[in-house]
Amino acid sequence: MERLKGQAALVTGSSSGIGAAVAKCFAAEGAKVVVNYASSSEEAEEVVEEIVADGGDAIAVQADVSQEDQVQSLFAKMFEAYGTIDILVNNAGVQQDSDFVDMTLEQWNTVISINLTGQFLCSREAVKEFLRRGIPSYSRAAGKIICMSSVHEIIPWAGHCNYAASKGGVMLLMQSMAQELAHKKIRINSLGPGAIKTPINQDSWDTPEAKEELLKLIPYNRIGVPEDIGKAAVWLASEESDYVHGITLFVDGGMTLYPGFATGGG
Ligand code: NAD
């Protein structure tokens, strides 16, 4: 049975990595998917083509999620194509790493505006539509939002203050929206990936030395793949998780278990 049959989903930043996997997993479960991209139309079209070749339904729409007017036009294009939205996945995100003392205001602002403000802008447009439409006949919720957070919503990260601050912000944005909108039957949760093999963190897995260092942080002893997150996203968007609200589901092979304490020494 297709768990998201006929539902309209928007996955931001889904031309690559985790977003592309979420878009494909959603489409395989019967969702109609908007593949949002910031600049690479070629990659986004490839994701759409793959979905369509597998018998699914998807379109690619350009928008920078940090720009209010572009987010509004993204939703207008989605409504033109699919009439409404049932599932929003706030996935778009970037890293711009720097030692704290050398971090420029531009590096700070870029990461906060895409990773945090982008989630606010997209969630607000989705919630407007959920409130207008109410609960559709095919779902128990008036709408569902999944925020792509990170283990770094709780694990501090030296050299990545802007990124960690953005994900810490996503945690309380998600929880506050969840608290405010639960009685409207809008279901909101986060996914907290650990280390997943994508272009964003290629430096930390593409040499044997880097991989060995990274695995020390992962008790389950394997680096994640985008499909690990795609499968969890399907569950969080589906009726199977209808009573799950306001949580971060960490999908991290145990990275949040303080692996440095595994031997109990100290
Ligand atoms: P990625 O670089 O493959 O994907 C990021 C996507 O966001 C890209 O498609 C990019 O084009 C898009 N994007 C960037 N700026 C945008 C903008 N202004 N508007 C719209 N789209 C924009 O990396 P990924 O690992 O797939 O990252 C996806 C999400 O997962 C991010 O939010 C990231 O923080 C989060 N995450 C990733 C990992 C990991 O280990 N890969 C771990 C934790 C969290």
Automatic annotation (TrEMBL):
Xref: Pfam families: adh_short_C2
Tell me which domain of life the UniProt entry assigns to the organism this sequence originates from.
Bacteria
**Record keywords:** Oxidoreductase
Q: Could you tell me which residue ranges the Ketoreductase domain spans?
A: 7-194
GO terms classed as biological process: monocarboxylic acid metabolic process
Q: InterPro entries from the xrefs?
A: KR_dom (IPR057326), NAD(P)-bd_dom_sf (IPR036291), Sc_DH/Rdtase_CS (IPR020904), SDR (IPR050259), SDR_fam (IPR002347)
Task: List the Gene Ontology MF annotations in alphabetical order.
Answer: oxidoreductase activity
Q: Which CDD domains match?
A: GlcDH_SDR_c (cd05358)
Keyword Transferase among UniProt keywords: no
**NCBIfam families, per database record:** PRK07231.1 (NF005559)
Family classification: Belongs to the short-chain dehydrogenases/reductases (SDR) family.
Q: What is this protein called?
A: SDR family oxidoreductase
The organism is: Lusitaniella coriacea LEGE 07157
